[in-house]
What does this fold into?
Amino acid sequence: ADEPLAKLDNVMVAESNAPENTKVTMTPNADKTVWTGTYITGDKEDRDGTATVYAFGYEDLVGNEGVEDTTTFNVDRMAPPAPNLDAITGFPETPTPTATWLIESEAEDNLLGALVPLEKGTVKIRVGTTVYTLTPTATGYYSKSITLPEGITEVGIQHIDRAGNAGEENAENITLDSIAPSITWDTIADKALVDGVQINNATPTITLTIHDAGLGVDNWGFNADDNTGYSVQLWDENENVIGENLANALAHDNNVLAFENTLSKLADSTYYIYVEAGDSQLMDNALIEFVVDTVAPGAPSVDAAYVITSTMDAPMIVKKASRAIAGTAEAGADITVYGTVDTTETTLTTPTLKLRAPPMPRSAPSVGARLNVDGGERLWWRMNRAERVCGRDGEPASSPERGGSWFRGFTRDRRGPPQHGSRWVNNRSQSTTTLPLNTRPRTRKRRV
It folds into this structure.
C-alpha cells in the first residue's frame, strides 16, 4: 500500500473453473505498508489458466476505506511432456562410431490441456553426469552440440516450463566405439610373423591376435554388410584363397581374440595370411607374406678376386685388420663368413734363434740380450762377433741347434737401420721383445 493500513482482511482468489473463491489471510510488516499472504492451488489441472485476486474492505489508520482492487496471475499445474528422442534431430544412435552430435528440436509444454511451444522454459541435456541448460526460443527451438566419450554413456533430455514444472527425463544408453579392431601378427613356426619371413616348416602353426576393447568381434565369419565377425584366410602366391576360412584352435574372446591354427602341408612357395575383423561399426584388415623353403641352399662361391691363397712356406701378409669379400649365393640365403684358427698350442721345447752379430768394436767383446716369448718361453743369448745359438733360460749360450730351425727376424731398433729384418744390438745392453711360438706338434720352418 502507498500508506499504512489498519486492516486488510478481505483478499480472495478465484481460479479458473473453480466453484468458489478462496480467502487468503494477509500479514503486515512493521509499518503496515506491505501485506503478505500465501495461496496454495489445488491439484486439479482443469483449473489451470488465469486466476483473479480481489482485495476490498481495507482501511487506513484513520478509518478511510479503500476501493476494490484486482490483479491476475497464471496457474500452471501441468508439467511438459517427456521428449520423444526418436523425433529429435541429431540425437545419437547406438552403437555409433561418431563422437560429436548436433542435437536440435522444438520443445513442447502442457498448458490448459494443450501442447504449446515451451516458451521461456528450460531444456536440460545430460551427457553422463554433465548437464547443459538451454533456453528455447518463442517457438520452443533449441540446439546443442555434444561429444560422447568412448564406451557406454547415458544421454537424457528434460523439459521444464516457466512455472517450474519439471517434465520426465527421457534417456538412452549410447555406445561409442570409434576405434576399429586391430590385428597383431604373433608367430609362425615359432618365429616372429613378420612380412616376408622364411620358414623351413611345411606344416607351420600360426598365431595372431585381434583386439577390440569396445563392442568386440563376434565369433562368426566376417560379414561385409554389417562389419561383424572375423575371417583368417590362407592365400597362394597369386593371392587366391586356399580352402575355407582357417579355424581357431583357441577359445573365443570378443575383446582379445587369440587365434591359432596349424596349416596343412604346404609346398615350397610364397603364401599370404589375410585377416578381416569388424565390431559392427568399423573394420580392419591385414595381409602378410611368408615363404616356405625346406630345401637347403647350395654352397656359396667366392669371387676369384677375393680368394686368399696362403701357405706356411709362402704366407700372405695382410696389413689391414679388415678385408672385403664378395661372391654369389642363393637369393635370400643367410651367408656366414668366418675364418679358421688353429687353437692347438704346443710349446717348443728346443726353440732356436739365429742372430747375426753386427761388426763390434774390439773394446766390446760381447753383447747380451734376453727375449720374452708368448706362452712364457723366455730365451737369452750372448754373442761375440760370430753367429751364436741361444737356448732356454738358464742354459749355456754355447748349446748347439736343437729340434729343427726357427729363423725369426726382429723389428727395427731405434738406434740403427734394419738389416734383413734382423735386430742389431750395438752396445752392451739387454733387449726385450715378444714372439708367438704357438705351433702345431710337428716341426715347421717359418721365415719372416
Q: What stands out?
A: Residues 340-448 form one domain. The chain has a mean pLDDT of 79.
